[in-house]
Amino acid sequence: MTQMSSPPTEELVKQWESEQECLRQQVVEDDTEDWQRSPSFSGLERVGGVDLSFIKGDEVNACAQLVVLSYPDLKVLYEDSQMVTLTAPYVSGFLAFRETPFLLEALQRLKTSQPTLMPQVVFVDGNGLFHYREFGLACHLGVLSGLPCVGVAKNLLQVQGVFKDEEHQSQSGASVT
In which compartments does the protein localize (predicted)? Predict the structure, then answer.
């Protein structure tokens, strides 16, 4: 089993908190793109999705993936998968510092090779504003890429008065763990 060499220092966590707070100030929660504001808006044409996938038991090597689909017919327009070696450990609330660099690289490869296929919105496997400091992976990627991003997390964070309880489980179909 491969693991990160050591947990982050308190100094590093403080640095990450500070960086999150600075970047949080740059989050735009309004429509910013011409296609969003145009009276002749005819709908989305391209949506993207990003994720880092891991081999079970390996916390260092992952596959960074970007897929762009046509919308609404969801035909694959572009795929990018690259094995990467993570340099930051997993720390709850700081997933962006572990994953964002590789997701940004995937978006940059697309922008360089086929800019006309850049997604109009990116779905991110992680939280956005629904985060301990209202700045999860989706916000981080959105600010740094300049693209509208939506967080689509698999796990419910216990923040802002939301708890993983039986009531939430019955409403979402999620299991309480």
Answer: Cytoplasm
Neighbours of 48 (CB within 10 A): 25
Q: In this predicted model, what pLDDT tens digit does every residue of 23-47 receive, in sequence order?
A: 666 666 666 566 566 666 667 899 9
- What are 107-156's pLDDT values in tens digits? 999 999 999 999 999 999 887 655 565 568 888 899 889 999 888 877 65
User: Per the structure block, which two tokens stand in for 161?
Assistant: 């008065």
CATH of the domain at 119: 3.30.2170.10
Please measure the distance between the N-terminal and C-terminal CA atoms of the chain and give it in whole angstroms.
24
Residue 81 phi, psi dihedral angles, 5° rounding: -130, 130
Best CA proximity match to 20, nearest among 138, 122, 168, 169: 138
Backbone dihedral angles phi then psi of residue 58, each to the nearest 5 degrees: -115, 110
> How many domains does one find in the chain?
1
Residue 69 lies in a domain: yes
| Domain housing 96 | 44-172
Rounded to the nearest 10 degrees, the angle between the axes of helix 137-145 and helix 10-24 is 60
Is 66 domain-assigned? yes
Whole-number Å distance between alpha carbons of 125 and 141: 11
